[in-house]
Write a structure and sequence with these properties.
It is a single chain. The chain is an alpha+beta fold. Helix content is 38%, strand content 16%. It contains 25 helices and 20 strands. Strand 10 and strand 11 form a beta hairpin.
Length: 694
């Protein structure tokens, strides 16, 4: 893991902060373990973890004005300096408009500004501490700093309504540690904190301005090309350089590297056969910049980009995608590697792994992803996020009705009718979209709170049923049906409080609101996956989650994105604009095989170990579930009952995360005396709010 952590005190010199650390509430001096100090008194900033030298850049105007950028940023030092001067006047948005994925921190006198990203993949957290405010890009270090206990209301909301921002608000799994929402920045003035949005939001009162589809797709192409080029122009790194113990009889350098578990030098990409990863692989291989060459270790002529395809031997159904991946990899610019996996890499098969900053459903499949990434490159492109930023959330149909663009509903509704085979589909979908368009945000949140309180979780099945269920301001999470009544009541109270909180309304159309919430949820889980499946010395790159790519995709007209096959058509146009036209037949065709098949198979194979995991679960001790109810659901799903598998993934992953957190012995801080870690008392449920589930 890598993060940055800083502190803003109420008065200059009050905290006694410098290279030695900070003076806490008890007079002890603390500083983050494994850190490098970027600047010191009175508002210090540290970079913690295995940052590469080129990933940490600090540009100074003078002793009181400076900017730090951590991550992959395509801006030059001069552009950073100009951004610093503009930020001193309060302009923030341009700090997030450079290509790449990074976190920018600006210090202008006693004012410190930390910018989060639009997707939520690089979040910012903060907490009051020692009369000021501590902030970080990870929640666990702050939880260690204040010795925070678990926030059971947040954990209940993660299971009951994970896609509803009103339920989670700005909370984290740690009580007292707060999250800065996507699209916002944390502004600290001598310890006082403020959270300010830097992105304009479309008004509900005025119809969305019509955008030209061609220019909007061109903007997506430019943003993606810039995002890929920012990675290609960064210095190359040799994984584990200098730690090779030397020759081993019968083993070459590549075999020694594989035995150490380090990635291949250079740049690579996933190549699943789908349009998202294929677009990135072809762009990275086609742009100038010698994708595979390591600085000082290449031939100078450039090497091929390493394309990695995962072939699941335990679950079939992806033969067409694998064939397309092979056809794409026939390009002389690509070197194709196929990684095979059987039952040993199914979801739930290997549940051992590192502690992540937060829980996420991807914990159940981290070993599966690690098996693929271990064959990848030191810098590895992934197609994560393309579906969330390019596809249309079903609730966008209500946005089209609000803008009086009914004719654009014809094709998507016809596609749903064809999939369902019922002539009643158009009327049902249109009625649900019109109902959502006429439902105020407050009424929608209150209706969700009532559903949770009354335990109404039944939803229609199939593609049409999923679309109808999504045509609301919020819906119960797939794991909500297994929560205790006390936990559901807790979340219901949170939602009712949010509905009556002044000024909390989304300020945007329901479809746009739901799409942003889904993107934030997905980006948070991808962050968890990167930490859980991390391969040493490897960097994963997800250009679709970059700020500029997210902005360009949000500018796509809704009438374009709601059409069937829109994502594949947009990415095909992106490749054509970059000069890549030789695509295999069927490229962009929807995949009929889903991760649900692998999840169900993995659940069946690992059923006994999962039931044992919930013999005495921590979730029951916290009052969130009843153990016998979850065990019954696991046995039923393994036997083939039609239960929501993603809900069981939420339960299992949260139980795993709690066990890893409570078995942890280390801490992120050192000093005299030694500080206790987060959640020092273990599971201590609040009696009367969340009683034990037994």
């Amino acid at each position: 893991m890598r993060w940055l952590v800083g502190w803003s005190s109420t008065a200059a010199g009050a905290a006694g902060i410098g290279s030695a650390g900070a003076v806490g509430d008890d007079g002890e001096t603390v500083h983050p373990i494994g850190s490098q100090l970027l600047w010191g008194d009175p508002d210090p900033l540290w970079a913690v973890g295995d940052w590469r030298p080129d990933e940490v850049r600090v540009v100074k105007a003078d002793a009181q004005n400076r900017i730090a950028v951590l991550g992959t940023c395509g801006a030059s030092d001069e552009e950073l300096r100009l951004g610093l001067f503009s930020a001193r006047g309060g302009a923030l948005r341009h700090l997030t408009a450079w290509p790449g994925s990074y976190t920018a921190v600006v210090q202008a006198g006693r004012r410190v500004t930390v910018c989060g990203d639009l997707a939520g993949a690089r979040p910012v957290f903060h907490t009051p501490w020692a009369g000021g405010t501590a902030y970080a890009t990870a929640a666990l270090p702050l939880a260690d700093l204040i010795e925070a206990n678990l926030d059971f209301g947040h954990l209940a909301a993660l299971l009951a309504a994970p896609d509803v921002p009103a339920a989670l608000y700005d909370s984290t799994p740690y009580d007292g540690v707060r999250r800065v929402p996507p699209g916002h920045a944390l502004i600290l003035r001598a310890g006082a904190r403020e959270v300010a949005g830097y992105e304009p939001v479309a008004s509900l009162a005025v119809a969305a301005p019509s955008a030209d589809p061609d220019s909007a797709v061109d903007a997506v192409r430019d943003a993606l090309v810039d995002a890929v080029r920012a990675r290609l122009s960064a210095p190359r790194h040799v994984p584990g350089a200098g730690i090779d113990p030397g020759p081993v009889p019968g083993m070459g350098p590549a075999e020694r590297r594989a035995a150490r578990g380090t990635p291949v030098p250079g740049i690579g990409a996933d190549l699943s056969g789908g349009p998202a990863s294929g677009t990135l692989a072809l762009l990275a291989a086609g742009l100038p910049g010698m994708p595979g060459t390591v600085l000082g270790h290449g031939t100078g002529a450039g090497e091929r980009l390493l394309a990695v395809t995962f072939n699941d031997l335990a679950v079939g159904g992806r033969e067409a995608e694998l064939e397309r991946a092979g056809a794409l990899a026939a390009s002389p610019r690509l070197h194709h590697v196929v990684v095979t996996g059987g039952e040993e890499v199914l979801p739930y098969a290997d549940l051992d792994g590192p502690l992540t900053d937060e829980p996420g459903p991807s914990l159940i499949s981290a070993a599966r992803h690690r098996a693929r990434l271990a064959a990848g490159s030191a810098d590895h492109f992934t197609g994560h996020g393309a579906r969330q930023v390019l596809d249309a959330h079903p609730a966008r149909l209500a946005d089209l009705l609000m803008d009086r663009k009914r004719r654009h509903l014809v094709r998507p509704v016809a596609a749903l009718a064809k999939a369902d085979g019922s002539v009643m589909v158009p009327a049902r979908v249109y009625s649900a979209a019109r109902r959502l368009a006429r439902t105020p945000y407050r009424a929608g949140v209150e209706a969700l709170a009532e559903r949770l309180l009354r335990r109404r979780f039944d939803e229609p099945g199939g593609a049409v049923g999923a679309s109808l269920a999504a045509l609301t301001w919020g819906r119960p999470g797939p794991a909500a049906r297994w929560l205790t009544g006390e936990a559901l009541a807790e979340v219901s109270v949170l939602l009712q409080g949010a509905a009556h909180r002044s000024g909390l309304g989304p300020g945007q159309r329901p479809g746009d609101y739901r799409a942003r919430a889904a993107l934030a949820r997905y980006a948070a889980d991808i962050r968890v996956l990167e930490q859980a499946a991390e391969v040493r010395f490897q960097r994963l790159h997800a250009p679709y989650l970059d700020n500029q790519v997210v902005r360009a995709c949000r500018a796509l007209p809704e009438s374009l994105r709601v059409q069937p096959g829109a994502r594949a058509d947009i990415l095909r146009t992106v490749l054509e604009g970059a000069g890549i036209t030789d695509l295999p037949p069927g490229w962009g065709a929807p995949s009929h095989a889903s991760s649900a098949a692998a999840a169900r198979t993995g659940l069946r194979v690992a059923a006994d170990s999962l039931v044992s995991l919930f013999a005495t679960p921590l979730l029951a001790e916290a009052g969130l579930v009843e153990a016998r109810v979850v065990r019954k659901a696991l046995r039923g799903a393994a036997a083939g009952e039609p239960l929501p598998l993603d809900g069981l993934a939420d339960l299992v992953s949260l139980e795993l995360w709690l066990r890893r957190l409570l078995s942890r012995r280390g801490t992120c801080w050192t000093g005299t005396p030694a500080r206790a870690r987060a959640v020092p008392a273990g599971i201590t449920p609040r009696r009367g709010a969340l009683a034990s589930g037994g």
